[in-house]
Structures are given as structure tokens and as C-alpha cells.
Write a structure and sequence with these properties.
The complex is a heterodimer. Chain A is an all-alpha fold. Helix content of chain A is about 85%, strand content about 0%. Chain B has a domain at about 125-325. Classes of the chains: A mainly alpha, B mainly alpha.
């Protein structure tokens, strides 16, 4: 019994840590695809660990059976959502940053550059469509 | 400790709601604002769940986060994705907003505390309903008992309101047509995953429909979930095929049929010299009469909500894109 409690605690802790890293990655990583990668860690592994922790904590009841079903749905649905998002972004003209050399420095520069470009593009788009 | 933790969760969820509202006012990208509205609905569903209002949370998640987002996106398709930014600072508007806010805050002072057992809402009819649900209707979910039996008139009104909303959208926008018969983009992963998912969604819809007496759920939620299965099909495989599965012309009739089932259930009890919507008349045993009545009424609600939701979706997605020069 004690061991199960320990495993449950470890699962919950790991899930919490992974959720946190996912959130940090979502904020800090440079472009859409890497951010999607961070989010997908949260919504697959972290969520699964959290639910497994809860299942071990509650024991074998009807609720834990429902939670297992939830894990099954999450394993199938969440990677598919990530895939669909990724594909939609690629089809919409968002290409991943591919840089050689020092990855951190160059990518941060290109990102600031590209975000500036996007800003300018957005402004021209708005001013272009405004009837003046 | 536990109470403090719950208070902490409540406060942080409410703070999230306020933040999302400010963010969606500030954002000019309408796509982002639509997503923020979805997040807003999910957060308020969590808040309802924390207040033990599972049925309401269910509805909020299904309608607010699911269906409304799809509607907004299909409306966004017709317009430009960015807000026309015009910075106007009207002193009068600010004054009115501050005045209204102050009046609302003044009103809050008279509210009873959250969860106060002496609050008027817990004194009036609620204890009676909770007691009588056990005796007369004998189902575990008091919400369903109140919704379908004690307050059957109100729910009938709500069903008619949903039906007339569908009729209004139909009159304003028409049913729309799929002009371009283009196939959707081939995406094998999505197709393979979505097909069993749709089956799961439909089964879950039926579960929510017929399990509403025993757990959270009922006709309203089930109708939305059932319709969302078809909407998912339409989004992934193309609207042309969805309209082949459920023809648009049949939907107004189905919605009317749902309202009709509800009304006829009421009339049945009227025929045996009982008040309108008194389900005791439906069977020799009052309790099983109540069960039958709730089942029929929920079926009517589910059918009406399902067809109205799908009807509104068809009307929105069938509109033509007019490209502005």
C-alpha cells in the first residue's frame, strides 16, 4: 500500500514538473513548431502521469476505470491535434526556422527579425484593407 | 485547509477570467480572440465544476467552448482576420461604464455569502424539491428532476426558445449551399483518428441523453454533443458529405418534432384530467409515470437541440465567401 502511494506521489510530481516545463517552453521557445512541441509534452506525458497518479491514489473503482478511458482518448486525440495544428501551420505558410551555426543565438535573432517582419506585414495588411 | 484551497482555486479561476477578458479586449487578431473566448468558456466550466454545478459545467464546455468556437470561426471565414483598429476615447462611455460598475458593486454588498445556508434561494422551494425528488420521482439527479418535472413549464419554454432561435437563423441566413464541391485536403492521420472518435462522441451523446436521470447530463447537453459529432465529421471530411448523411432539409422538421414530443407529453396528461405536464397521469404507478414523462421530455429536448445546433452550423458554414477588393 505504501509503495503504491509512493508511486502515485512520484507520478503526480513528475506530471507537475513536466507541465511546468511545457509552460516555460511555450513561453520561451523561438517559433511555432518548437512551442507546439513543448505544448504536446504537457498534453500527452504530463497529463497522463497526472491521471495515472490519481488512479493509483483512488484505487480500483468506477472512477478510475473512467480515468483509464480518458487516458486512452488522450493518447489518441492529443497527438492528432498537434499533428493537425502542425500541418495547418505548414500549409498556411509558417515554415520552421532552420539555421546552422550557433543555434540559440541565431534563432533568437531570426525570430526577433521575423516577428518584426510579421508586425510590419500586419500593419500594411490592416492599412491596405482600411477604406481611406 | 481544504476550504482555503478551494477558495484559492476559485479566486485564481476568477482572476483568469478577468485576465482573459482584458486580453480579448486588447487583442486585434480576431482568430486569437476567438480562441480566448473558448478558453474563457473552459475556465468558467471549471469554475462551475468547482461549485458542484456539474450539469451547468457540462453545458458550458459543450456549447461555449465547442459549438460557439466553431460558429465564430465559420463567421470569421467571411471577414478579415484583423480588427480595424480605431483608437477612440469617449469620456462619456468611460463615465457610463464606471457608473454601471459602481452600481453593480453596490448591489453585491446586499448579496448573501457564497454557500450561505440562510440565503433566500435555499429557503424558498429548494428544500421541498430535494425532499420530493426522493419521494415522488425517485431518481438520483435532483437537477434533472427539477428541470424536467417540477419546472417542466420553464424547460418547455426553453425548448421553444431554442427552436425559435433556429427558425430565426434560418429566416435570416437561409440554409446555405455547398457551392464549391472541392474535396477537403487529404490528411490520412486525421481521417483515421476522427472516424472512431465520432463513434465515441455519438455513443457518449446517447449516454448523456439516457443517463441524465442518474448522473450529470440530459437532453440539452446530449443534443449538443450529438450535433458536435456531425460537425466534426463535416469539418474533417467536407461539408458536402455531412449534408449527404444528414440532409439540411430534414433538420427544421426534426427540431419541430422535438418540440412536438415535449408538447404532446404535456397534452397526454391533460387528456386524463391532470394538469399540463403532470407525468403522474402517464402510467398507473405515479413514480414510473414520472420516469416515462422525464424520458419522453428529455428525448424531445435532445432532438430539438440537436437539430437546431446542426441547422445553425449549416446556415453559418454554407454562407458564401465574398472577397472584398
Amino acid at each position: 500500500m505504501m509503495i503504491i502511494d509512493w508511486i502515485s506521489d512520484i507520478c503526480l510530481l513528475l506530471g507537475g514538473i513536466l507541465t511546468l516545463t511545457g509552460a516555460v517552453g511555450l513561453l520561451r521557445l523561438p517559433d511555432f513548431f518548437t512551442r507546439l512541441h513543448a505544448a504536446s509534452v504537457t498534453e500527452t506525458l504530463a497529463a497522463m502521469l497526472l491521471i495515472i497518479g490519481i488512479i493509483l491514489d483512488t484505487g480500483f473503482t468506477l472512477d478510475s476505470a473512467k480515468l483509464m478511458l480518458l487516458i486512452l482518448i488522450m493518447i489518441i486525440a492529443n497527438p492528432t491535434i498537434t499533428h493537425a495544428l502542425c500541418r495547418a501551420a505548414a500549409n498556411g505558410g509558417n515554415t520552421p526556422e532552420m539555421e546552422t551555426g550557433n543555434p540559440l543565438q541565431s534563432s533568437s535573432q531570426t525570430v526577433s527579425q521575423s516577428s518584426q517582419d510579421k508586425q510590419v506585414q500586419t500593419e500594411t495588411e490592416i492599412s491596405g484593407k482600411e477604406p481611406k | 485547509m481544504i476550504e482555503n484551497l478551494q477558495l484559492l482555486i476559485d479566486v485564481s479561476l476568477l482572476a483568469f477570467l478577468v485576465l482573459i477578458v482584458f486580453a480579448s479586449i486588447k487583442m486585434t487578431d480576431l482568430f486569437v480572440v476567438t480562441m480566448l473566448f473558448g478558453i474563457f468558456s473552459f475556465v468558467s466550466a471549471l469554475l462551475f465544476l468547482d461549485l458542484d454545478a456539474v450539469d451547468v459545467a457540462f453545458t458550458e464546455a459543450a456549447v461555449g467552448a465547442g459549438f460557439t468556437t466553431v460558429l465564430m470561426l465559420s463567421a470569421l471565414r467571411l471577414t478579415q482576420p484583423y480588427e480595424n483598429v480605431k483608437h477612440r476615447h469617449s469620456v462619456l462611455a468611460l463615465f457610463i461604464v464606471i457608473l454601471t460598475g459602481a452600481a453593480l458593486f453596490y448591489g453585491i454588498a446586499d448579496f448573501p455569502d457564497m454557500g450561505d445556508p440562510n440565503a433566500p434561494v435555499h429557503q424558498h422551494v429548494a428544500p421541498e424539491y430535494i425532499q420530493l425528488t426522493q419521494q415522488k420521482i425517485d431518481i438520483p439527479n435532483v437537477v434533472t428532476a427539477v428541470l424536467a418535472s417540477f419546472r417542466g413549464y420553464d424547460t418547455f419554454g426553453e425548448t421553444v426558445v431554442i427552436f425559435s432561435a433556429g427558425v430565426a437563423v434560418l429566416l435570416l441566413l437561409g440554409m446555405g449551399q455547398v457551392k464549391c464541391k472541392q474535396e477537403p485536403e487529404e490528411n490520412l492521420v486525421l481521417w483515421v483518428v476522427v472516424k472512431p472518435m465520432i463513434a465515441l462522441i455519438l455513443i457518449f451523446g446517447l449516454y448523456v441523453q439516457f443517463h441524465g436521470d442518474f448522473g450529470a447530463g440530459g437532453g440539452f447537453q446530449a443534443g449538443v454533443i450529438f450535433a458536435s459529432g456531425f460537425i466534426l465529421y463535416s469539418l474533417v471530411f467536407g461539408e458536402m458529405y455531412a449534408r449527404r448523411v444528414v440532409p439540411a432539409a430534414i433538420l427544421p422538421r426534426l427540431a419541430a418534432l422535438g418540440v412536438l414530443i415535449y408538447g404532446v407529453t404535456g397534452l397526454m396528461s391533460l387528456l386524463s384530467n391532470k394538469p399540463f405536464l403532470d407525468y403522474n397521469a402517464l402510467s398507473s404507478d405515479p413514480v414510473s409515470g414520472q420516469h416515462l414523462g422525464i424520458l419522453l421530455v428529455e428525448a424531445g429536448v435532445g432532438l430539438a437541440v440537436f437539430s437546431t445546433i446542426l441547422l445553425i452550423y449549416y446556415s453559418f458554414s454554407g454562407r458564401e465567401v465574398k472577397h472584398h477588393a
